[in-house]
Predict the structure.
Amino acid sequence: MEHRREARHVSTFFVTGANSGIGRALVEALAARGEAVVLATRSEERTRPVLNELKSRYSSARLQWLHLDVSDLGAVRRAAQSFLATKQPIDVLVNNAGIAGTRRLSADGFDITYATNHIGPFLLTNLLLPRLKEAPQGRVVNVASNAHFIAKEMNWAGLERRTAPKRSGFKDYGVTKLMNVLHAKELARRLAGTRVTTYSLHPGAVASSIWRGVPQPFQWLLKLFMLSNEQGAETPLYCATAPELATATGRYYYKRREAKTSPLAGDTALARELWEKTAVITAS
């Protein structure tokens, strides 16, 4: 009797900040596995060469571009609406886009670091959750950082609209990464009983484009001591794909292992407060 091999389930991964740095390395790793990947980025011009190169190297992978400026709440809503209208599935959302060391305001009047690293991803996650809940085992992966340890208190001013920009330093970056960890933990609690699990992680100190807002020559000095993007993508890939994590949720990872967070990141009341305040400003 002839035995037919069951077709492998091809998962769909929605990756923000996918045209450079850790995001691009993660997309390549997923493409090599023959997965379907949505590269959600601000610039088609910068993403198209990446897309074409990966398509030529991994012919079995299904890759597509979606315009998304995660710092702009209107753009987040438009991107989510556009994607959901296609009726395509999402198995895994990777909130990877990030920035540090900036002096700009978002289109909505928020500090661009807070808008890019937390506020926009929070809204995007909420908008895509209905589709993630339809997946056999949906996942939300927040690329955070051990920089969250430097945040000794929550800076709620980061969630306030401003009229003039000010320099956003490493302390602000640390607060936004704390927000990433708290978001994953609170989301896990709210999704209890569903098939969607959440993760946050430290990719390592990576020489990625996240540091593009930091003045030269400090960028060069920083990157001398950092990991490659490929090394930085290993833990996000693990959280996004590892079968053994299917029943784990709300946890924090580093070097493909569960790791400890700061005491502040384990504060459930703080996580709930962050959720509520961010829900108000994103009206979600």
Summary: The longest strand covers residues 196-202. The chain has a mean pLDDT of 92. The chain has one domain: 12-282. The beta strands are 12-16, 36-41, 62-67, 92-95, 138-143, 196-202, 251-254, 257-258.
